[in-house]
Design a protein that fits this description.
19 helices, 5-stranded mixed beta sheet, alpha/beta, 5-stranded parallel beta sheet, 12% strand, Heat Shock Protein 90, single chain
């Protein structure tokens, strides 16, 4: 049996027999060392020829046991070791003084005094007691040289005692380092095991995080795809209703419900991207007043059915043009306004926007139910709502405020609130906006009117969902009734169709079977004849993952739109690119 195996079995047996207080960390070894020293002291109390030995050694053994009891009841192990070492130094100094001074074999016991402080406490403590031992040795040597110590004759009666002293000191000097070497190896192995466990746990968490992101991306894509058809056909029906108020009312309710569902989907996706550190802002120069008014006006249909004063107050000193992420600003405003309307049944909801030179303060104040004091500290946490009944009574997913805080921070601002239960709340955020000059750019494509409605454009629609192909076909036919439209269900069919006949523009989905839109676009740009290679390609996808979208764009897209899309905006983009190319 090797040394390490023997020590491990011995340590295990010791650990099972010691009190609970001495079973952790370095305690078992300290307990064992104190017991061994106590046994040695009692043996010397019996065999030692010195008249003082029985009393002094027995008292020291008792003192060590008392220290163990004190440790078990809560005394610091370090303090107990210092007390025991100090008393041992005093007793050994006295023993050497009365038994021959520098010539006494009792001085060899001083060699083991620094061991326990060194191994159990720390190196500094061991060095301190080593210095004390060396000082005592120098003192006893000087005292012996000056004949201050009493004369002592060593006879045959002291042979056994001296032999035992040297033998036991030698054993202690070997065993104690071995014991603590085993303790170090054991601790090192435990540390390595813990490190391996942490590494495995980290890999599991990374895998779980990747699976979560993949799951959320897939769920988002699968939800946005049917929402594209719901919102798209809803918009087409609204455009054709004419004077049918009841039908328009039903479609408006459908649109509001679909918009609410899209808000939930976007909140979940945004939170997932913020957790992964992929939520980014895309600043642009825009009209501040119009953006704020657009966000405010989104809730007019809901407010019409409520007995509520809903108004907006804009500071006349507000700059006309600012530079930040317009979409994210709209998102925060919509979240705050939506929450205010959700929790306010009577009174008012007011949106105030003030110029603070520099910066703009946005505040939404309501006279709703307010927030309980004990819940206010958690209100910006994810999946947190004021109390357990809020979701049942009012709905919501508890992500809006958490995402709003993240977005405001990304925009360089700060967000906070004041609230009194039963009296309402005021949520505000400040953004470091400054006035910007009006951008020199063409009007937005969304505002362009279709100028080529009579031209026979040739369109290719590549999408694996027949409902989405039907929606895209209907939108294009409404705008360009004389157009020629071909549909395919995957990227490979799109490439083959382009080889067979020319098209003016391709609507390319990203996620498709057989061949996805990214690979299909890459093949079109690199492998088809030059006459076909430069065809306009407009990406039309429900995949909102920034990495995937960047990869899609890099393969040669002219533009990209996300599903669900606004039919008018799609037509405007198509018209914009057709006019620019032709």
């Amino acid at each position: 049996m090797n040394r390490n195996t023997w020590l491990e079995q011995w340590a295990s047996r010791i650990a099972l027999r010691v009190p609970v207080r001495f079973q952790l960390g370095k305690m078992p070894y300290a307990f064992f060392f104190a017991q061994v020293v106590s046994v040695f002291l009692l043996v010397f109390a019996v065999i030692s020829p010195y008249p003082y030995a029985p009393v002094i050694f027995s008292l020291f053994a008792v003192f060590l046991q008392v220290l163990l009891v004190c440790i078990q009841r809560g005394m610091s192990l370090n303090l107990a070791i210092h007390l025991g070492t100090g008393l041992g130094a005093i007793i050994l100094l006295y023993s050497a003084w009365v038994s021959g001074g520098i010539h006494s074999p009792r001085l060899s016991w001083l060699l083991i005094l620094p061991l326990t402080p060194f191994y159990v406490i720390n190196r500094r403590s061991g060095i301190f007691w080593l210095a004390v031992v060396m000082a005592l040795q120098v003192f006893i040597a000087v005292a012996s040289h000056m004949a201050w110590v009493p004369v002592f004759e060593i006879g045959d009666a002291h042979v056994l005692s001296s032999f035992m002293v040297y033998t036991l000191v030698t054993c202690v000097l070997i065993v104690v380092p071995l014991m603590y070497d085993h303790m170090y190896r054991q601790a090192l192995e435990a540390s390595r095991d813990h490190q391996r466990e942490l590494e495995e746990r980290r890999e599991e968490l990374e895998h779980a995080s990747q699976m979560r992101e993949h799951f959320i991306a897939n769920v988002s894509h699968e939800l946005r795809t049917p929402m594209n058809a719901i919102l798209g056909f809803n918009a087409l029906l609204l455009a054709r209703l004419g004077d049918k108020p009841e039908a328009r009312k039903v479609l408006n309710h459908t649109r509001q419900s679909a918009d609410h569902l899209m808000t939930v989907i976007n909140d979940i996706l945004d939170y997932s991207q913020s957790q992964a550190g992929r939520l980014v802002i895309q600043p642009e120069t825009f009209e501040l007043r119009k953006t704020v008014e657009d966000a405010f006006e989104l809730f007019f249909p809901r407010v019409k059915s409520m007995e509520l004063a809903y108004r907006i107050e804009l500071d006349p000193a507000l700059p006309q043009w600012v530079h930040t992420d317009r979409h994210r600003l709209m998102q925060v405003l919509v979240n705050l306004l939506g929450n205010a309307l959700k929790f306010t049944h009577q009174g008012q909801v007011v949106l105030r926007v003030q110029w603070q030179n520099p910066g703009v303060l946005f505040a939404v104040q309501d006279t709703g139910i307010g927030i309980a004091k004990d819940r206010q500290a958690q209100i910006f946490n994810r999946f947190s709502q004021a109390n357990g009944d809020i979701q049942a009574l009012y709905g919501g997913n508890g992500l809006g405020l958490a995402i709003s805080r993240t977005l405001v921070q990304l925009l360089g601002g700060d967000i906070d609130f004041e609230s009194e239960p039963g009296q309402g709340s005021r949520f505000w955020f400040h953004l470091p906006l400054t006035a910007c000059p009006e951008p020199q750019q063409k009007p937005s494509a969304a505002r362009m009117e279709v100028q080529t409605a009579q031209l026979p454009w040739r369109f290719l629609i590549a999408d694996d969902h027949p409902v989405n192909r039907l929606l895209a076909r209907q939108v294009l036919k409404n705008a360009w009734p004389h157009s020629h439209i071909v549909e395919v269900s995957d990227g490979l069919q799109a490439v083959d169709m382009l080889r067979e006949q020319p098209f003016d523009l391709v609507l390319m989905d990203m996620v498709m079977p057989v061949m996805d839109g990214i690979v299909a676009t890459q093949m079109i740009r690199t492998q088809l004849p030059s006459a076909v290679r430069d065809v306009l390609i407009l990406g039309l996808t429900a995949n909102v993952n920034p990495v995937d979208l960047d990869a899609f764009r890099k393969e040669g897209l002219d533009d990209v739109m996300l599903k669900p899309f606004e039919p008018d905006l799609l037509c405007a983009k198509v018209e914009h690119w057709l006019l620019q190319r032709n």
